[in-house]
Prior knowledge:
By secondary structure, this protein is of the alpha/beta class. The protein contains ten helices and ten strands. It has helices spanning 23-35, 51-60, 89-103, 122-134, 148-161, 179-190, 224-251, 255-264, 279-290, 295-303; strands at 10-13, 40-42, 69-74, 110-113, 141-144, 168-172, 194-198, 210-211, 215-216, 269-274. The strands form two sheets. An eight-stranded parallel β-barrel has the order 1-2-3-4-5-6-7-10, surrounded by five helices. α3 (89-103) links the parallel β3 and β4. α1 (23-35) runs parallel beside α9 (279-290) and α3 crosses α4 (122-134). The longest helix has 28 residues, at 224-251. The protein is globular and about 55 Å long.
Amino acid sequence: MAREKELTGLVLGTGHYFSMDNALTAEEILRTAIASGVKVFDSADTYANGAAEHILGNVLKTFPRSGYVLCSKTGFKGGPCRPEGGFSPKRLSETCKSSLSRLKTNFLDIYMCHCDAPESSLLGIIRGMANLMSIGMIKSWGFCNWTIERAKKTLLICEKENYPLPEYCQYELNLLTEPLARRLFRRLQKHEIKIMAYSPYAQGVLTDQFHLRGQYRNGASFSSQRQRLNKKIKAKGEMFIKNFSELSEQTGYSKAQLSLSWTLQFPGVNSVVFGASKPDQVQETAGYVRNPPPDSVLKSLSKLDFSFPQ
């Protein structure tokens, strides 16, 4: 398959479907992504207990290292870098080495703390990331889902002690994201922290994979996070989804394309992490980016009113 022109703004996530039981399909998804022009890949040491990194490494080792950007994360609750004592430079070094081994590479372009960290751990995280950068194991570092207070405290410590500043962050962003989170994005933008947004389809709610009333359309079970989402948006959310569906029909653009395009154009967003369970979904997503809706459609989309019930 001939490789298409590089796609900017898209990051292939490996949080779903990248398990050893699904390894062959996962590898095909990765090769399709590369052929489609995707060059940024996101993983974590807890995804499928390390299997996602292993699969990613098996495929990417056959390509020049300069041809792709690799991001991984550590510190998720229950993961190898989240013991009772919290983060430490030593544990960050150990988990990074383990990730590099599974990914079959000598360095990570981006290394992130996977979830919000207690303030008592901040200095250890900052020193640990600085050490990893100084010895060439990572090129930059960042964080996921930190509060704005935690992010501001981190920036102050880095500037005062002359440590490398975090350059990236990951947060959920979609048409159903709470206004408070949207304001947080704008504040991060002021600090020139690049935002990698994830869940552009609101865990399937915006693309009809998940029904607002509490179950997947195919009858599968759903997580407690989706239960929470369902409770918060059930009333006003159903009207929003109805209006969103009508706009999709009127404009001829799919709900997935509208959702992804809205997230990509949101102020401060550097890239969007997307997932795929089969190769043709990667090709569809690449097509959305190559042929985005016109500005007039996106403006109509932004006018749809949604806010979480209080």
